[in-house]
Amino acid sequence: MRNWLFVLSCGVGALASSPQALAQTAPGTGAQMSGNADSNAPAGELEEIQVTGTRIVTNGNASPSPVTVVTTNDLLKVQPGATLADALNTLPAFSGSRGSSSNPTTIGSAAGGNGSANSLNLRNLGPTRTLVLMDGKRVPPTLFNGVVDVDIIPQALVERVDIVTGGVSAVYGSDAISGVVNYVMNHKLEGFRADTSSGITQEGDDPKTDVSLAYGTRIGDRAHVEFSYEYRHEGGIDRRSDRSWLNQVGVTGAGTAANPYVLQSNLRQAGFPFGGLITSGALAGQVFNANGALSPFTPGTPTGTNAIQIGGDGGYWDSSLLAKLNSHQAFGRLDYDLADGIRFYAEASGNFKTNTNWAETGQLSGVTLSSTNAFLPPSIQALIPASQPTFKLSKFLSDVPRAEAIADSKQAIYTGGFAGETHGVSWNLDYTHGSAKLDTDLANDINRQKLGYALDAVSSGGQIVCNVTVSNPGLADGCAPFNVFGPTAASQAAIDYITDTVNYQSTTTQDDVSGQMSGSPFSTWAGKVSTALSAEWRKISFSSTSSSTPANVLNCTGIRFGNCAAGGARNDFQFGQSPGGVSQSVWETAGEFDVPLLSDLFLAKALNLNGAARYTHYNTSGNYWTWKIGLDWRLTDSLRLRGTRSRDIRAPTLYDLFAPTSSVPVRPTDLLTNTSPTVPSINPSNPDLKAEIGNALTAGVVWNPSGALNFAVDGYKIQISNAITQIDGSTTAFQNACYASGGTSPYCALQVRPNGFGDSSAANAVQAWIVQNVNISQIETWGVDFEANYTTTLLDRAFSARALTAWQPHIYYRQPNVTTIDQGDVAFGPTGLGASPSVRVALYLRYEPIAHLTVDLMERWRNAMKLSGDPTQVFVSNHVASFGTTSLNLAWDTDAGSGVMQFYFNVQNLFDATPPLGAYSGNGTRAGLRDGFALGDDPRGRSFTAGVRLNF
């Protein structure tokens, strides 16, 4: 009861909705505003529609779950040339969604194999907890971690998007813990549509081209066909240094009172210059210049992190700011009326896209070299005493291109089925097959085996060659010696020799058979009782292969120098493979009802009780019940209360359970030894995972005082127990928990050390970090959504305003034996957690000052946040400033014979606002690699798009 009172107390207003959004809020308007309603139907002819949030089909149904409805036209009016995912992410309900500017890992599990894919994230509870539907049917996963890259959706034919912000697993199945995003397609297009645009930023980068075509027509009296095609190219921004304000930003320090965290810029890696630093022997402290000559190394200003300095001769990373994209999206659909009341359909959707981004630069960390290395000038060799046969050198390998991740996706969805109505019962039977093939090439990955050969350069026969070709003929005859003495000293042949292109391929398939029926079997004193029954079976399969696996280890035969460690990783990036493949099968059955309890009474114009229950069986994770109960109380024609209580689940994905072990190099601070070695981050799977359980409560008020003004307020509370959480051994909280326990904490298993946890010397520096998914977390969040709409005339011209606001003050992560982390109002977090501003606002204004000209304004704003939500961490200033942008669109309509042509010009970030600086404390030892701004803030600056739309 306290929970109900809490959430109800949040709702003292009502739904904001544009006329298009009233399908779920205003009585009697649902059919007219449906995306599938026939715009050519005679006045007063209503079609049955399905309102997202329920499988019960009625005219003008009002869902007890909070639903936001936005048309594609409205979304893209203020962001033409953008993807529909970009436009959706302007809505405050979304937070932490990933895309081209997400500071992605290169290939790793957090990125699902493509760190630049467009995924949707409601409430920042994770994209795997947001269920994506197309016409009410589950969209198969397109990334290997089970996430849907929503670019698979045919944007040109999306009529509207319904967003349910509450748990609906009982209605739609697993994964709908934070809500559902349902793309509703236009299946009755008649005519031709085209949209082409081009854009560029004020800095002259990130060029964009978009071409969209759609056509639909009837064939005879029974058939209808439609097709769409979209080509999109985004040039991206190759370097973070292309924005002067983003100057190697990072957090330094240890997060303690004696050494607090500090956000700083112009950071450099201490002791790792681009030219190479001698770190031992007679010439220690000397750095190689461009001509191979030596000069004293100029250190930067010390920081609270030994590995990081401000300024000086140290090197830095410079990864991509925005990833590149090249994509083709195609869709086709046939509808055929087999008989009165029976319809057949078949459709296919394909997305073929390539994302490219640049990330890590290779390093040499204290490698041992011969004092007689053939590339070492004789004048320098003469300075080294004969008693010193070797010396050590550290270097940023700036002459080797950055690691380049090229993710090639081939995604296809095939769907077919039958639908109809028999004796007042609506039914459908559907089959969906989805296939997602992800082929990722990681170019310029350092092969440490070949590097060991190439670092040992000797003179032989008047030429500089690799010693291995002399000492061990036939072992590495293709070796090209690598000159490390200077920032650009290496030959192209040597660079080509020591670098590999690591390939990782994964295939995810899903077969899904589902059916449902709905109708009104009987009536009560207050009206018809509506029911729906559904059943579904699906099978998901996953397989992967890699050219570089953890089994590829170093063999030190023939390697004299270079610090070869037999059995170590041969490549910097390694990914396991499951050539046999793994699979998961699920079957489930569900029922739903809507019972009118009161009708046409004082303060009870209508009172309906809605409920649903679902039984789900996973062959990998067990059996689960989910349920939902909801109340829709229409006090008057203009005032309505609504509320739901639900139990929801998210089962672990195949990748969570059976993913092959992967390894990527990282460089976080080892708090035990205060060192920052470059070591592998190892990510194994966990076959013992079980489903997580969500409990959601929503309640709100909908008020429609007039046809021109509408309000809504909905409060929610979501608790997830047994939550599947990725824990990273390098995270400060887990390190501290381990050290405080003296090595007995289970979190100590997330570290690999040579001497246990009692030795804090550099000799005991961590050798690997473990990252793993486990069922140990409880997640809790709550908040309020507000929406308001107003339409009127201003100076006798049409004017409309829409405001959406999300208030989400807390996202608690509770785990055993560590301090509770609150990611609410926090910009950065471990394992890729995105920014979660507690206040997110989107304001849309539209005005037609003269005939044919429409002006659209969009204002987005978020409040200030903290850098970290860990209360044990001490910051000099734990603060990221607020940020807002304004967008302007001008559209001119003109007649084009039998159709309409529209020219538009758009400016994003009209006032060229610069995102406030920020960074994750765990990335402080990788200056310039990632971070710098909060996920969701636009780092491009002012940008322009111009285009034309045709509609015939």
Tally of DSSP helical segments: 11
Number of DSSP strands? 47
CATH superfamily of the largest domain: TonB-dependent receptor, beta-barrel domain
Question: What is the share of helical residues?
Answer: under 10%
| Average pLDDT reading | 87
Radius of gyration, in Å, reads 30 Å
Beta strand %: over 45%
CATH architecture of the largest domain: Beta Barrel
Q: Do you know the CATH topology of the largest domain?
A: Maltoporin, Chain A
Provide the CATH top-level class of the largest domain.
Answer: Mainly Beta
Poorly predicted parts:
1-49
Main features:
disordered N terminus, 952 residues, mainly beta, 2 domains, five-stranded mixed β-sheet, 11 helices, Maltoporin, Chain A
Concise account of the structure shown:
The protein has 952 residues and is mostly beta strands. It is 7% helix and 47% strand. A hairpin with a 3-residue loop joins strand 32 and strand 33 (622-634).
What does this entry look like structurally?
By secondary structure, the chain is mainly beta. It has 2 domains: 684 residues, TonB-dependent receptor, beta-barrel domain (Maltoporin, Chain A); 189 residues, no CATH class. It contains 11 helices and 47 strands. The protein has a 22-stranded antiparallel barrel. Strands 3-6-7-4-5 form a 5-stranded mixed β-sheet. A hairpin with a 2-residue loop joins strand 4 and strand 5. The two termini are 56 Å apart. The N terminus is likely disordered.
